[in-house]
């Protein structure tokens, strides 16, 4: 393709999402946004785990920190505290990658607590962990608005988690109340330990009931605990399995798209969509929203992220992160659906740039009215290409041919593209403007934007279709 100066334009579709060319010196969001925050928390998790293993490997852990003598039980707790914190932090990191608000709150509590450990042990190996935490906490605070997704639990999940908590409380209080009827059960710690061991069906045998009443109580803890645990596993693991199965069929979930920013959302899948995807550069993040499961599977195999949902549904657009998108391309084969998709997109994000495809003349004006910034009229483009090619048979398809001229850029607009500014002196439709893609009334045509000679201009001074003009396309010159 060529522009008005005859230079190649390799990415015309992508340029449509850049009405104003701005080249920032540094993309600061790449270094300070949600993704770097998740990466830092993950690094803290790994370093805490490694530090905890280092403490566990010591034959005798010396606690020489300034807070070591103040906090009770430091010597016992610090030995495995790093590993103990690493596992919940791993879950927190996973939640942050899904932009969960509860994960952000948990990280804001757990990460600063880890910073206390170097002051307890005084070991030089924990100094890197301390400085990494000092860097991570400001990132968490600065990006608090990025992690705003609520944790949506089903009623079954809430009930199962509540039942497990209830069994633990019931077993701990009951076993402590019956401590005189157990062997080696003396305090609340022993009671809690006994309940966990019993529910897990480990049965070490160090604490055992010695009366019938204690045995019946232990039996009730086993039945209630294993039942609640089984239901909880099914309720919590089931959605994860469903998500994996959906991914196998080419479907992305909303949580998997949570960290997308500055991407292009394609609403609908049609004949134009495949060509559009071929034109977009490989470095551009794309999300296609379509109800076509077969197309979703093919696109997923090609490495393109797909959300199988209704592109006219505002909730689906929220899941596709339209609020953080660079631009939206509406390109299904159904113009009525395209109108609804543009309207829904504008309701979700009033500032995003929208480019819509019109498969017929009926909905061109409607697409612009409901909020599309650019409307590509496929039928108009096809007709002008056909007319320009027929009237210019001497062209061999090289640079400057009618095909490239009509598809190239002319004064910032695309031929066959209806813009949202009807007062512009340069019109994409080219009916009354001084510069026209079709060249019906203008002095310059798309076939040669710098020439006064037009292949499709019957009113111009020189015309290929006018046998009476002073100079014809056949090369005859009248005296």
* Category from helices, strands and their pairing: alpha/beta
For the sheet with most strands, the description reads:
7 strands, mixed
Q: Could you give the order of strands across the largest sheet?
A: 5-4-3-6-7-8-11
The overall pLDDT, averaged over residues, is 73
Distance between the termini: 39 Å
Number of helices: 17
How much helical structure, as a percent, in the residues? 40-55%
Give the DSSP E fraction (strand runs of 2 or more residues): 5-15%
- The tally of strands reads 15
Radius of gyration: 34 Å
Shape descriptor reads: elongated
**Unreliable runs, pLDDT <50, ≥5 residues?**
1-8, 406-415, 422-479
């Amino acid at each position: 393709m060529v522009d008005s100066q005859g230079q190649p334009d390799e990415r015309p579709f992508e340029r449509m999402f850049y009405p104003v060319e701005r080249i920032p010196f540094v993309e600061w969001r790449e270094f300070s946004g949600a993704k770097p925050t998740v990466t830092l928390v993950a690094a803290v998790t790994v370093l805490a785990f490694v530090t905890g293993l280092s403490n566990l490997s010591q034959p005798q852990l010396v606690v020489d920190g300034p807070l070591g003598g103040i906090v009770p039980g430091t010597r016992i707790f610090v030995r495995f505290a790093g590993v103990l914190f690493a596992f919940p932090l791993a879950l927190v990191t996973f939640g942050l990658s899904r932009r969960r608000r509860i994960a952000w709150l948990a990280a804001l509590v757990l990460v600063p607590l880890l910073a206390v450990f170097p002051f307890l042990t005084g070991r030089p190996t924990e100094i890197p962990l301390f400085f990494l935490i000092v860097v991570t906490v400001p990132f968490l605070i600065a990006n608090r608005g990025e992690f705003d997704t609520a944790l949506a639990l089903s009623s079954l999940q809430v009930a199962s988690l509540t039942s497990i908590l209830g069994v633990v409380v019931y077993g701990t209080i009951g076993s402590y109340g019956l401590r005189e009827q157990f062997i080696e059960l003396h305090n609340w710690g022993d009671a809690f330990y006994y309940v966990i061991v019993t529910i897990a069906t480990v049965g070490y045998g160090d604490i055992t009931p010695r009366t019938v009443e204690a045995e019946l109580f232990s039996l009730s803890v086993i039945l209630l605990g294993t039942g609640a645990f089984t239901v909880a596993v099914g309720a919590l693991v089931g959605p994860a399995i469903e998500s994996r199965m959906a991914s196998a069929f080419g479907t992305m979930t909303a949580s998997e798209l949570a960290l997308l920013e500055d991407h292009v959302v394609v609403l609908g899948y049609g004949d134009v969509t495949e060509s559009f995807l071929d034109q977009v550069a490989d470095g551009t993040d794309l999300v296609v929203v379509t109800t076509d499961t077969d197309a979703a599977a093919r696109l997923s195999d090609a490495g393109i992220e797909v959300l199988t949902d209704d592109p006219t549904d505002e909730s689906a657009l929220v899941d596709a992160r339209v609020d953080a998108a660079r631009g939206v391309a509406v390109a299904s084969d159904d113009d009525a659906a395209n109108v609804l998709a543009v309207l829904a997109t504008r309701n979700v994000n009033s500032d995003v740039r929208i480019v819509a495809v019109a498969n017929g003349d009926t909905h061109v004006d409607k697409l612009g009215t409901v909020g599309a910034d650019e409307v590509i009229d496929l039928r108009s483009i096809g007709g002008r290409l056909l007319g320009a090619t027929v009237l210019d048979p001497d062209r061999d398809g090289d640079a400057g041919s009618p095909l490239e001229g009509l598809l190239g850029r002319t004064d910032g607009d695309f031929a066959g593209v209806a813009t949202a500014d009807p007062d512009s002196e340069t019109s994409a439709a080219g009916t009354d403007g001084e510069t026209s893609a079709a060249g019906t009334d203008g002095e310059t045509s798309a076939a040669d934007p710098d020439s006064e000679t037009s292949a499709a201009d019957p009113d111009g001074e020189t015309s290929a279709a006018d046998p009476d003009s002073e100079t014809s396309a056949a090369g005859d010159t009248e005296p």
